[in-house]
Each structure stands twice: as C-alpha cells, then as structure tokens.
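Course assignment 3, question 2. Fill in each field.
Student: A.L.
Task: Predict the tertiary structure for the chain below.
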Amino acid sequence: MRTPSAALSILVLLMIAAPAPLPAQQPLPGVEIDAPATVLTGSPFEISLAAPVELEGTSFRVLTASGAELHSGTLVEGENTVENLLVRSRSELPLSVMVGASTRTISPLALPGWLSLIPPVLAIVLALIFREVVISLFAGIWLGGLIVAGFNPIAATMTTLDRFVLGALADDPDRVAIAMFSLLLGGMVGVMTRSGGTAGIVQALEPYSTSPRRGLVMTWLAGIVIFFDDYANTLIVGNTMRPVTDRLRISREKLSYIVDSTAAPMAAIAAISTWVGFEISLIGTALESAAAQTTDEATRASLLAGAQNPFSVFLHSIPFLFYPILTLCFVLMVALTKRDYGPMLHAERRARRGGGVLRPGSTPVADPSANVPEPPEGAACRWYNAVVPIVAVVGTALAGIIYTGLAGQEGSGASVFDVVGAADPFRSLLWASFAGCIVAIGMAAAQRILTVREAIDAWLGGMRAMLLAIVILVLAWGLGGVTEALGTGTYLADLLGGTLPLTLLPVLVFLVAGATSFATGTSWGTMAILFPVVIPLAVAMGAGVGFEAEGNYTVLLGAISSIMAGSIFGDHCSPISDTTVLSSMASSCDHIDHVRTQLPYAVTVAVVGMLVGDIPTAFGLSPWISLAVGLAILYLLLRTVGAPVDEADPVIENDYVTSPASPSTSA
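Answer field:
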C-alpha cells in the first residue's frame, strides 16, 4: 500500500509550527476550570466550572481580552458548563473568568476556523485515493484529536480513543441500537441463507425477474415501499434483493446506488416516517426563534402561527425538495433505460459480461452469507423461510413505532403524524431485528432443516461478517464527534452570514447544507445545525411574511427544503456518512466503489435541481413546473451522456453469481 506521505508531512508541519500553549494559570479559590487547549476562531467552544456548595449563587462572567462579555451567569453546586463561547480573532484572547471578586486568565491556543475542515477532508481524500476506509477515518479522527489536544501527539492518541471512538457509542444509546440492529439483521440473513430461504426467494422471483431491467425496477419498488425509515429501508432492501441482482448479473455498485438513493429521499418526503417528527420539531423551534428576534408584531404573529403547525409548513415544502424527488425519479430512469455513465457504466458492463458483480480485488464491507455454509443437501429451498422473517422485521418495526409514539403522547386524540413524530425508531428497529432472528431460527428448526445448534452457528456467522462494517460505522461516528468538537458545522453555517440576495438564499443554503453534510457525514446533524440559523436569517432578509402561498413565502419554503435536500445530497456523496456505509454493508459492496460510482449521479441530479428548481422558484416559478423541466433534462442527459450497458437483455437461466470468482456464463 502506498504511504500518504503528503498528508503525514502536513501533520508534522502543523505540530512543528504550532506554538506551545501557555502554562496553566493558578485556579480560582474553590473553583476548578476545565478549558480547551485550543480554540478555533469562528467556531464555538465551551468551558466548565466545578463549584463547591459554598459558592452556589455566586455570579460569574467570561470576558475577552478587551473586556467584552461573552457570558454571565450564576454558579450552582457541581459542574457548570458554559457553551457556545465564540471568539472571532486571536486579539480577543486570553479570556478572563471572574467569579465574585476573583479572576483567572485562561490562554488557549488560537487557531484559524478553517482548520475545522481539515480532519474530515483528510479522511475523505485519503479514502478516495487509497481505498483504505478504516485507516483514512482513523487518520481524520486522530488529526482532530491533535488539534483538540493542542498538538500534543500523546494526548491526541488518548483523546482519539477514549473521547471520539469510545464516545461514538458510549455517549449515544441510539447508535448502540443501530449497531445492534445491523448485527442482528446480519445474523438473520445468515440463518435465511443456511436454511435455503435466500435461494428460495431467487427461485420464486425467477418468473418475474427475467432481465436486469426487471430486477432493477423491483429493487427500486422495494425501496419505495419501505418508506417509514431509512435505516430499515437500506438494510432490508439491500439484503433481500442482493441474491436476485447477483443472479441477474447486476453489479453490487448499482445495487448499493439504488438502495442508498431511495432510502433517505423516500423517508424525507414521506408524510409518515421517522424523519418527519425530527424535521417538524426543528422547523417549529426555528420559527419560534425567528419570531423572538423580529420587532414587527404582524410578522411575529404569522411566525408563531407557523410554529404552532410546523407540519403544515413541512407539507408546503415537499414540492420544493428537488434533489430527493428528482433522485427517486432518476433511479427509475436509469433502471428503465438500461443506460449508465461514468464509473457505474464500467461496473455494470463488467458484471453483465461475466467479470463479476464485484470489482476484482475489492473488499466488500460485509457479506452475511459469505461465512455461512450452503443449505443442507436435499433440503428444500422455500421462499417463505426468508420472506416471513423479513415481514416480521417490518411488522415489528411498525408496531414498535406506534407503541413508542403512543407512549410519548399525553392524553387522547393524537393524530397519526403526532404518534410517528414522537416514536423512538431506534428501539423499534432493535426489537424488529431481534424478532426477525427468532422467527428465522424458529422456522428453520421447526421444519428440521437445521438443528438449533446449526441455526445458531449460521446466526453467529452472519454477525461475524458485519464486523468490518460496524468498525467503519463507529469510526464514521467518531469523525462526526471530531467535527462537532471543532465546530465544523457552525463554521460552515457562518458562511451564510453577510449580505445575500434573498432570491439566492435557497440555492446557497443547499450548497452549504451539502458541504456541511459531506464534511460531517450526518444529514440529521446538518439539519440540526442549519435550521436554527437559516430560518431566522431568511425571515430577517424578508422571507415568509404572511405565511401565504405566494410572494416571499416560497423563498422561506425553498430555504427550508434546501436544508433537507442539501443534507441528503451531502450524505450521498460522503464516504464517512453512516447511511452510505450501511448501503455498502447491506449490498455487500466495496465502500469506496459505492461512493465513486454514486457520486457522478448525485452531482448530476443536484446541479439540475439547483438550476431548474432552487433558483427559478425563488423568483416565483411553480415548483411543479421546475420538477417537470428537471425530469425532462435528466432524461435527455441520460439519453445523450449515458450509454447502453448491453445491446439487449439476455434471458437469465438458473445461475447465481455471488462473487467475482464465480461469474455467470450465460449470454
């Protein structure tokens, strides 16, 4: 493997050039202050003050070097965390913390804000160049730890391991649930394969999946049907359709593209999904914040009216979600026309012409069926041994969403939207995957296809195959923790400041959301960062007054939808995104191959969406006209730039391609 010497040289230069942080000051009497070793200008940071009981009620202030107040408050016993402190230049340092009549000076190392972009960019560039995802992600996390630790390499290594890698799971139970859901689903697939259920699905679909085109359309339809959650969509569709697409000699890159490009877009635009509650809560809170910041009474009243019914605002914004809607349609176009371009064309031609559904030398993120023996000799391959566990997963997930949603409601009369919005999707998915495992093992044992011991071995084999994917997922979350600690998202959001033409706000928001999601690897995190910034900014610039479906309301809707659409776009392009990793995992595709083949398609749709959607609708064009024009342009691009994968669809015989080492030989 080539050594990324240029990246290492940059790290060494940063360590040499960085001035040593000033020695710690004497502590305040009775107060312990925990301050960062470094701060980045333009990015928020926090300090912590631990106060004894005798100082409870004492006032404190945080001042810049010039005496400007950054924060003031009153101490309580124990830890007092002061968040969102911000310095714009090195001249504002050192800071002074005044507690009563005592003062302590803290002098962190001041660095330019753009350094917050370096860790994620380094990880992404190394991953794309060297195709070593684990090493690249760890390098990005370690560089972030180096910056946080004041360029102390020993402290950086410890910070990397205990704060960012361990903290990626320990600090968020929902992430543990996602990891367990992935492991359990992998185990379920292992049992389905060992019992012959997976092969049974392939045999049952033979009359319907006689060509690659039909196989692609069926995969797309599966992604549309499982609309209620993107994680469930990704893992269920990928694992279910992989045997079918392998048999039809469809590349794993194409499968992972369809899985990835239907999951989040569908969950984002569906009126009932695990995304909706999160989105409308952010919209409502941001509208309330905008109302609090305006001085015009009529404007405040209209904003508060919108905050009381943010679901209505969300519904109005759906036609402006150009990237998700056009992406869903473009995937179907690619499937129906049998045309591709860029790296995807090469991948499809390789698979169709017998070169294997995987690139030779590639490393699939996971393949739960690879570590599982074939079904016992003479055992019948029954399709329902796979379908029933999958139905159990979907049914239990939906029941869990309803159960947890109802538990979060007070009183009666809650609408279905309120129930779904208050649901806990992570616990629901965990229950669902466990139920699927129990059903799969129980069915295999009840039919005496497998003994309980054989079923458990197959279950463990399926989970073992998920190990690399879980490692990548945890490292991606760890890098997200780095970007949060360095304030990467806030730094990018700050680029929206200044004087901007109101009509260009939606497209600029889309670009910033895309860049933020790409750099941080999280669409939800990007939305959480940008909604509180963009909606008050749009209102301050004149958008949304009156909350009527005309005038500047369309600009506000465009800005709201651009946050959601741009977040999904950046997520699709980023190799450090958890949903991108999950798509590679579920499709058993090399992760970087998935990113490289999907990227041109995502960029194509994004550019068309901006040119015919975000920009003209801000000037008053109907979003429905923009969508129609966008679809026409995408079709023409596919017909002119794209090339046929093959001249005619071959009739597929009863063959089954699982790896490059065993390619299909049918014409």
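Instructor remarks: The first strand starts at residue 32 and ends at 34. Residues 591-618 form the longest helix (28 residues).
Grade: pending
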